[in-house]
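Sat 14:20. Reprocessing the chain from the morning session after the first attempt stalled halfway. Input below, unchanged.
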Amino acid sequence: MRLVVVVGVALAMLVLVQTQRVAAAVPLRLLGMTSDLAVLEIRTDGATLQEFLLSEPLYGVPGLCNGSTIGMSVPIRDGGFYGVGPKQSLTTGAITNVVFHGTIDANGFALGNTEASPASGNPCVRHNVPFAAVPDPGSAPAAVNASFSGTTDKGDAVSFRVTANGTVTDLSVKLPGGCPLIAGAPGVEFPLTDNAVNIGSPAAGGFLRLFVSGTQAYGTFASATPPPQGCFTVIGTFSARGVVAPTGPQSTTPIPPAGGVVGPIPPAGGAGLLVSGEASSAPGLVTHLRARGCVVASLAVLRGGTWSVYVNGAPAIVNSAFPSLLDASTPFYLRCE
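Finished this time. C-alpha cells:
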C-alpha cells in the first residue's frame, strides 16, 4: 500500500514538472495566418491554449464558416493541442462546429489545421485550412538600416531590409522545390504598422505576415493558391536576425557597379542572351547595361519552364513576377531599345 502511494505521488510530481516545462516553453501570444489569409492570434497561459482568434479570410469563398473560438481552454500536451466544440452566434443564434489542432514547438512556432462546419441554423460553407503562427517578438521598434537574413521551417532562405524610414524592402522568401519566390517588387517599401506588415499577392508567388522587434524577426508564409504548375501549396514559418549597417565614416574605396554581365552586349534594337557576372537586381542590370551602351527595353529569365519578364519603366505590379535578385551565373534574355 505504501509503495502505491509513493508511486502515485511520484507520478503526480512528474506530471507537474512536465506541465511546468511546457508552461515555461510556450509564449503567451502567437501571431500568424491561415493559407487563405485569415489573420490568426493564439493566446495561451503556457499550459493551455485559451483563445484561437481568426479574422475573415482575404481570399476565401463568401459565406465560409468562421473557425474562430473564444474562451475555449484546451490543454497543451507534449507540444500538441486539439480543440473541438460548437460556437453560437450572439446575433443570429446559428451554430458552427469548430475543430482545431496542431503543434507548438519549444520556440513557440505553431503549425496545424482548423475546420469549421455548419450546424443548427447555419447555412455557412465548410471551411478547412492549415494555419501557421510564430511568437510575438515584442514591442521594441524595428532596427533601422538593418539587413535581415534567416531560414524558413523548410530550410529555405529569407532576406529583407528595414530602411532608415522603418519600412521593409528587398524582401525574398524562397519556397520548396524551386517554386516562385514570395518577393516584393524591387525598390517597393512596405510600412511597418505596430511592428507588423502583410506582404504579397498571387502574382508575387504567395503571402506572408512579418513581425519585427529590434533585430529579431518572425513570420508566416503561404504560397499562392492554386500554385504554379509543378509546385504545391505550402504554409510555414520563418525567423531572421538583423545586422545594423555601421553609421560611422565609411571607406572611400570605390564600389564596383552592380549588375556585371558576361557576354556581348546587343546593339540598339537588338537582343541577346547574357549571363549575370554577379548577384544583380533588375535595376542594377539596367544601370550597368546603360553604361555599356544598351538602353534596356526588357529583361527575362526562365524559371520552372516559364519566362519571368522585367519591363524597364513599367509599374511595379507589371514586374512583380521577376526575381528581386538574380544569382551570379544566371542566364537572362536582354532586349535593347
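The chain has three domains: 18-135, 146-244, 261-336.
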